[in-house]
């Protein structure tokens, strides 16, 4: 029997919340803004879907693991400019795609490790009618550890209101062992880079002075699969998004299909949730191949977060859906 289920494969299902403190200096008119941006991102060991990726055990034996970002979007708010949106460039967007290198600090284990990200970012500021991107890679560097109980308990959000803890993070707090590659750490920009409009790659419009990306555990939101359906050439899913906090949430969601999964309809949207309330979101799409031929790499990733002012009020959630060929 072929059905749509939650994807728990550690290679493609490990998403993390992210908070980024960013300084941007504009060329004309000359000014500088500092903004916190929150989002969700997921990276994979491989994007070559013709080859089954290594298991986590096999990956642990490699001195360096190369990863590619599959999805990452971030949202921020400036008092004068309003909402700001940033997105990592990923395949199939040409040669300028966002990648990461993981260099373990000891043999036999993937974490702790030095992680170096090489990112190509698309930033939109609607109030200025401005879209800009970097021509040279934005390089971020971090010394990362596994996201376990110690990391979560150091997060002020979990200590202040434990009831806002999602199921998987509660499992980690209770002493559970991460089943996915979840690396926690602060990624610091190595050097400033110029930002250009896509239509003019020679005249810089801004300079990204400083970016400090904090990897944050999911908190405040639970995302669950209510129902998943498969037809010979299409799929549909109903997701339940629950507010675990005693305050209103103004959320942004986005959805990214991988490999032989296609999405129809909206790829992103806004969701308002009252205190402790829940709503459903309906997704649908097409299949590029018969359902029985698909595997765990044929995935639809759903991410959601708020437009936070800082890490203390950031909330996020994530789920990955895939095809299961069970008896």
Quick recap of the structure?
The chain is mainly beta and 327 residues long.
Description:
The chain has 327 residues and is mainly beta. The chain has one domain (2-325). Helices cover 7% and strands 53% of the residues. The protein has helices at 56-60, 149-153, 156-160, 167-173, and strands at residues 2-6, 15-26, 31-44, 65-78, 82-88, 99-104, 113-119, 121-125, 130-134, 138-146, 183-184, 186-189, 193-197, 200-216, 221-230, 234-243, 249-257, 268-273, 278-286, 299-306, 316-325. Strands 2, 3, 4, 5, 6, 7, 8, 9, 10, 11, 12, 13 and 14 form a 13-stranded antiparallel beta sheet that branches. The longest helix is centred in the middle third of the chain and has 7 residues, at 167-173. The chain is globular.
């Amino acid at each position: 029997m072929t059905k749509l289920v939650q994807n728990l494969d550690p290679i493609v299902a490990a998403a993390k919340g992210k908070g980024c403190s960013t300084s941007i200096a504009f060329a004309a008119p000359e000014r500088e803004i500092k903004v916190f941006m929150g989002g969700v991102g997921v990276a994979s060991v491989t994007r070559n879907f013709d080859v089954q990726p290594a298991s986590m055990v096999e990956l642990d034996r490699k001195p360096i693991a190369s990863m590619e970002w599959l999805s990452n979007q971030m949202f921020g708010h400036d008092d004068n400019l309003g909402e700001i949106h940033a997105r990592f460039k990923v395949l199939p967007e040409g040669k300028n795609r966002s990648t990461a290198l993981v260099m373990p600090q000891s043999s036999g284990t993937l974490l702790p490790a030095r992680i170096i990200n090489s990112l190509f970012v698309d930033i939109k500021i609607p109030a200025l009618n401005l879209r800009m991107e970097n021509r040279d890679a934005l390089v971020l560097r971090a010394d990362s550890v596994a996201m376990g109980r110690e990391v979560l308990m150091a997060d002020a959000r979990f200590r202040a209101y434990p009831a806002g803890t999602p199921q998987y993070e509660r499992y980690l707090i209770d002493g559970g062992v991460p089943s996915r590659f979840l690396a926690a750490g602060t990624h610091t920009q190595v050097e400033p880079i110029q930002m250009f409009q896509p239509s003019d790659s020679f005249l810089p419009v801004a300079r990204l002075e400083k970016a400090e990306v904090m990897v944050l555990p999911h908190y405040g939101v639970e995302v669950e699969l209510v129902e998943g359906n498969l037809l010979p050439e299409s799929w549909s899913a109903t997701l339940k998004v629950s507010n675990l906090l005693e305050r209103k949430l103004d959320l942004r969601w986005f959805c990214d299909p991988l490999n032989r999964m296609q999405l129809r309809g909206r790829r992103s949207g806004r969701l308002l949730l009252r205190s402790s309330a829940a709503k459903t979101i309906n997704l649908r799409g097409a299949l590029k191949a018969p359902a029985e031929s698909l595997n765990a790499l044929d995935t639809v990733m759903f991410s959601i977060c708020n437009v936070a002012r800082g890490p203390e009020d950031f909330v996020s959630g994530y789920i990955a859906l895939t095809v299961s060929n069970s008896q």
